[in-house]
Amino acid sequence: MEITVFYSWQSDLDNSTNRSFIEGALEKAINSINKENKFKVKPVIKQGAQDEAGSAHIAETILSTIKKAEIFVADVSIINAATISNNEKPIKPTPNPNVLIELGYAIGTIGWNRILMVMNADSNNPYEKVEVLPFDLRHRNVCTYSLKKGDIDKPEKRKQFEGRIKYKLEQILKDVEQAYVEKENEEPFVKQELEKIEKLRIEEENAKLSERFNHLAQEDNYLLAFLANNKPHYFTAKNIKSNRGGDEGVISYQLGRLHDHGLVEWKQIGQEEIKWGITNLGYRVIKLKGYLT
């Protein structure tokens, strides 16, 4: 079964050191995991509003995709480190605002245990360390790497980063798979409990109906049974007399009384002729009373 890994990226920093570097490492780590076939679930990367047809509202589509995802990966690299270094006024280090919004939404919907934060950090730059991340983030486990544009050891750094990403994803996938196993084991029990509740509800409703219409005269029960056994056909009082016998006036009176209780209904044929049939309530009541053949 495929599951979504949502990748929240930013384009403020160089593509070669962040977005494409992280995406490439993420893809290779996921491909390696899927080839090893250790998990029943198969992670697949999704980002932004890709695969959405038409002119969907991008922000709403992204949040909807995050909510449905099983794993969320966010690039929380500091985007304004260079600006801070060149500015005399104090500026607070910050990751990309859109990434933070998406990360906050992911925290509230899928939870911290399904989130992987990655960061291009530089231990030699005080503005590019994990310690300068917002308070709620820097105390979490952030998967870091250090890469500058033009680094000659980029392939080796990518390989190391892939290994760390793979390890982190495998830990999350264990949690995802366990949740699916628990859900599968729970579903039959939940279904049985819901069936029991529904059965009790129907029994309670039937008991109330039986008590409510316990006063019906025997002739009323017989008349309802006739209409129920001939459902969905409708009859005039004269038709009923022809089939069952009796007085047409008495039958009309009975039908009117049963109509007041919601047990029968009528429809007009032509200008004067009225035909009668049983309602769902009437059918249910007479079935409970055991009059159906």
Quick take:
The chain is of the alpha/beta class and 293 residues long. The protein has helices at 19-36, 58-68, 81-85, 97-109, 135-138, 154-212, 218-229, 237-244, 248-260, 280-288, and strands at 2-8, 42-46, 71-75, 115-120, 142-145, 264-269, 273-278. The longest helix is centred in the middle third of the chain and has 59 residues, at 154-212.
Beta-strand portion reads 5-15%
Rg (C-alpha, Å): 35 Å
Along the chain, the helix and strand elements come as EHEHEHHEHEHHHHEEH
Helix content: 40-55%
Question: What is the makeup of the main sheet?
Answer: 5 strands, parallel
Overall average pLDDT: 90
Q: Report how far the terminal alpha carbons are from each other.
A: 50 Å
The outline comes out as rod-shaped
In the predicted model, the low-confidence regions spanning at least 5 consecutive residues are: none
Compute the number of helices: 10
In total, the number of strands is 7
**CATH architectural category of the largest domain:** 3-Layer(aba) Sandwich
CATH superfamily of the largest domain: Toll/interleukin-1 receptor homology (TIR) domain
Report the structural category.
Answer: alpha/beta
- Determine and state the CATH class of the largest domain: Alpha Beta
Total domain count: 2
Entry keywords:
13% strand; alpha/beta; single chain; 52% helix; Rossmann fold; 7 strands; 2 domains; Arc Repressor Mutant, subunit A; five-stranded parallel beta sheet; two-stranded antiparallel sheet; 10 helices; 293 residues; rod-shaped
Give an account of the 3D structure:
- By secondary structure, the protein is of the alpha/beta class.
- The chain has two domains: 185 residues, Rossmann fold (3-Layer(aba) Sandwich), CATH 3.40.50; 71 residues, Winged helix-like DNA-binding domain superfamily/Winged helix DNA-binding domain (Arc Repressor Mutant, subunit A, Orthogonal Bundle).
- It is built from ten helices and seven strands.
- Strands 2-1-3-4-5 form a five-stranded parallel β-sheet, with helices on both faces.
- Strand 6 and strand 7 form a beta hairpin.
- Helix 2 packs across helix 4, helix 7 crosses helix 10 and helix 8 crosses helix 9.
- The longest helix is centred in the middle third of the chain and has 59 residues.
- It is rod-shaped.
